[in-house]
């Protein structure tokens, strides 16, 4: 029997850590929206991870649900509103399909979930990360925020992927890494989304910093050019 989570498409959930309504600053510097695509092979527990983050509850089995949910949390003094697209596992393939390409283009950040008990779900990740980066490359050089998540840590006696392997792969692919148990606690799910929010913030600030540095260099060049002209 499959237990279906009673969540509605585009449902909104309020985190305990969300800034109190009316107290949040209207400044855009204190708020951020993030579209997140949660992907993973069938049975790795990505929906369980998503629902744990949304509701604090654990539900072990799901049907082939595909939904976009909204949920906010405070991250380092900033209110982050996540729009989370939970993609059914049977859509995760080695080659990008047209529907998957649309999903990737929609998203700002990515959470790729594998099961520490299923090595095949882990081996799928390098190709998936490359497909994401290739799809995003046309939009500019901005770094793509991606988190790799090893789920089912509570089933260590069935472990097929070591924590060190997961961490090394994330380092090699320039991704964040977490190993969690969606079944055991909310903290792990919160840490995953908090880590993604931090990466998203850094990625969005990087072009601004680059532009600032280029502006400084341009101004300095103009000053030196004027000095050379004055000395002639």
Automatic annotation (TrEMBL):
Q: Which family does it belong to?
A: Belongs to the small GTPase superfamily. Ras family.
Record Gene3D superfamilies: P-loop containing nucleotide triphosphate hydrolases
Report the catalytic activity.
GTP + H2O = GDP + phosphate + H(+)
From the UniProt record, report the name of the gene that encodes this protein: LOC100076086
Q: Which EC number(s) does the record attach to this protein?
A: 3.6.5.2
The protein's superkingdom reads: Eukaryota
Listed GO molecular functions?
A: G protein activity; GTP binding
Q: Quote the PANTHER family the UniProt record gives.
A: RAS-LIKE FAMILY MEMBER 11
Q: What class of enzyme is it?
A: hydrolase
Q: Which residues form the signal peptide?
A: none
Q: Per its record, how is this protein called by name?
A: small monomeric GTPase
The record's section on InterPro entries has: P-loop_NTPase, Ras-related_GTPase, Small_GTP-bd, Small_GTPase
Q: Which organism is it from?
A: Ornithorhynchus anatinus (Duckbill platypus)
List the keywords (alphabetical): GTP-binding, Hydrolase, Nucleotide-binding
């Amino acid at each position: 029997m499959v237990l279906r989570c009673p969540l509605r498409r585009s449902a909104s959930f309020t985190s305990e850590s969300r800034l109190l309504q009316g107290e949040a600053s209207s400044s855009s510097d204190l708020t951020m929206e993030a579209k997140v695509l949660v992907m993973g092979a069938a049975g790795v527990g990505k929906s369980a991870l998503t629902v744990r983050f949304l509701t604090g509850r654990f539900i072990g089995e799901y049907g082939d649900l595909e939904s976009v949910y909204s949920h906010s949390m405070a991250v380092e003094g900033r209110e982050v509103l996540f729009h989370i697209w939970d993609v059914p596992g049977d859509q995760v393939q080695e080659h990008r399909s047209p529907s998957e390409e649309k999903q990737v283009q929609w998203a700002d950040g990515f959470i790729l979930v594998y099961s520490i008990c299923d090595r095949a779900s882990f081996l799928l990740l390098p190709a998936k990360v490359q497909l994401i980066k290739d799809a995003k490359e046309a939009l500019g050089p901005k770094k793509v925020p991606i988190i790799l998540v090893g789920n089912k840590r509570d089933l260590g006696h069935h472990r097929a992927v070591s924590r060190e392997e997961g961490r090394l792969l994330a380092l090699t692919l320039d991704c964040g890494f977490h190993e969690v148990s969606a079944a055991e606690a909310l903290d792990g799910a919160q840490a995953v989304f908090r880590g993604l929010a931090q990466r998203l913030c850094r990625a969005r600030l990087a072009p601004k910093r680059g532009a600032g540095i280029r502006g400084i260099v341009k101004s300095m060049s103009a000053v030196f050019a004027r000095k050379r002209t004055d000395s002639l």
